[in-house]
Design a protein that fits this description.
The protein is of the alpha+beta class and 499 residues long. The chain is built from 17 helices and 22 strands. The radius of gyration is 22 Å and the shape is globular. The protein starts with 8 loop residues before the first strand and ends with a helix.
């Protein structure tokens, strides 16, 4: 077992869209090494593919950078990947289909079929199969469907082809043979997290019975140790344990420190993602929220809104945002209320494909318009947390703020004010850090040491007087969302009572 001294080093590997990042972390959150390598892909309309060989070569480059100069070998590592990215391989782990990325949107018809085939199960689980889900993509890959990509879905239709998620491809290369997947990456391939089994009847009904679905383990389980070939390529020791990881969103939650039941992580980047911890899965009749299993067998419910900081890039390209922050501080609340969608359609906390950005009232000037955008995101964040409470979740303690928007100290304060909750801003949080924490947990490191790996850079206390000024604004936004038919009345009523 690794100890809490300086000899314990754990490696987190994050397979992103544009790069692979590797982070070597010791107890106390001390970064001992880091590395990154770029990734490219092919985008053409709804098509988005990457080459699995590129995932591996970028992983090799990033890991070699991270472990170069370490005083002691890495004790354990874990890998996260993008949720819903999938391909088919042969029995040895070599690709026999294109690798369809998380946002590849070609499986629209297949997602409808997958939803219908497992309607009863998905209703029980509170899920809806979207075109971005790996299950829909697997149907696309195994049928003579739209082959306009030039690689043709029929290439993966051979009997016995193995289902492989992005992280699985890399962990298999590290160990030197195909390994089990984790329940987090398996969820969007149709894995039944409640029964902890693949839904064979549903898969057969979709024509997927000829595929080999991998064994599934909980995140944090040991998959094996680094093989000789991978050790030579990466610079890792053959004794390094490979730990089952999680999707990148769940990994980021681990990096935020939101681990206990009742704790929530709000990730604000281009869009807003809310993830928390519950003792039991949240049942969501609307299917806009889904539940991952945690390493502790608790549940990690979450959802992604289409609102977020991306509206600032569109509305104020190249602007001096710190200066606008200072101006916005005098507009609490602004003279207008904005629903800040980054793109058409809302996914969480309600499903409305036709939803679009709107503004109630007329901003007095650019500062007022900017303030209404910041405040609009905070109001949506408040609505998201109201929705998870409506579904029965506890929301306790500070909310962990992560994502690029945390660079704005003013926005952090405003969000805490509108929520009426304290917040923490972790230092250096991210998916790679989350995987380093999970690697340490899988290696048997005590919880106190795990906790020390996540450092808090800032604590934000809400200002009660400011929250009171936004209570009426929040209700006004809720009323408008309900009037437009986007927000279900039951949710609107619950949110109004909170407001």
């Amino acid at each position: 077992m690794a100890t809490a001294d300086d000899d314990g080093v754990w490696l987190g590997i994050d397979l992103g869209t544009q790069s692979v990042r590797a982070l070597a972390v010791a107890s106390g959150g001390r970064v001992r090494g880091q590395g990154s390598a770029p990734l490219t892909g092919t985008r053409d309309g709804k098509r988005h593919e990457q080459l699995p060989a590129d995932w591996w070569s970028a992983t090799v480059d990033a890991v070699r950078q991270a472990v170069r100069g370490l005083a002691a070998p890495v004790d354990a590592l874990a890998v996260c990947g993008t949720s819903g990215t999938v391909l088919l391989t042969d029995a040895k782990g070599e690709p026999v289909s294109p690798a369809l990325m998380y946002d590849d949107g070609r499986a629209v018809q297949e997602s409808r079929r997958a939803q219908e085939a497992g309607e009863e199960l998905w209703r029980e689980l509170g899920q809806r199969i979207q075109p971005s889900w790996a299950l829909a993509k697997l149907v696309w890959l195994t049928e003579d469907g739209d082959s306009g990509s030039g690689s043709g879905p029929q290439t993966g239709a051979q009997a016995g082809a193995r289902v492989c998620h992005q992280a699985d491809f890399v962990t298999s290369r590290l160990v030197g043979r195909p390994v089990a997947t984790d329940s987090s990456h398996a969820l969007k391939s149709g894995y039944d997290t409640r029964r902890r089994a693949w839904p064979v009847d549903v898969l057969d009904a979709l024509g997927l019975g000829g595929l080999t679905f991998p064994d599934v383990v909980l995140p944090g389980n040991v998959l094996g140790t680094v093989g000789a070939a991978a050790a030579k390529e990466t610079g890792l020791s053959p004794s390094t344990r490979v730990i089952a990881g999680m999707t990148d969103g769940c990994a980021a939650q681990l990096g935020s420190g939101a681990w206990e039941v009742g704790r929530w992580n709000s990730v604000l980047g281009t869009t807003l993602v809310i993830k928390g911890v519950t003792a039991e899965p949240l049942h969501d009749p609307a299917g806009v929220l889904y539940n991952h299993l945690s390493p502790d067998s608790t549940w990690l419910p979450g959802g992604a809104s289409s609102a977020g900081a991306g509206v600032l890039t569109t509305a104020f390209p190249g602007a001096d945002l710190p200066a606008l922050d200072r101006a916005a501080a005098a507009r609490e609340p602004a003279g207008a209320i904005t629903y800040p969608l980054v793109s058409r359609g809302e996914r969480f906390p309600f499903l409305a494909p036709d939803a679009e950005l709107f503004t109630l009232g007329t901003p007095a000037d650019d500062a007022d318009r900017y303030a209404s955008l910041l405040q609009g995101v905070a109001l949506v964040e408040r609505l998201c947390l109201a929705y998870v409470r409506q579904l029965g979740a506890r929301v306790e303690g500070p909310v962990a703020f992560t994502g690029g928007a945390t660079r704005s100290a003013y926005w952090n304060q405003l969000r805490a004010d509108v929520l009426g909750r304290p917040a923490t801003v972790p230092e250096g949080a991210g998916s790679a850090l989350g995987m380093a924490v999970l690697a340490a947990r899988g290696a048997g490191v005590p919880r106190d040491t795990l906790r020390s790996m996540v450092r808090v850079a800032e604590e934000v206390a809400p200002r009660d007087a400011v929250k009171e000024r936004f209570d009426g604004v929040f209700v006004a936004l809720v009323d408008e969302l309900a009037r437009r038919g986007w927000l279900p009345e039951e949710t609107a009523r619950y949110a109004r009572e909170e407001g």
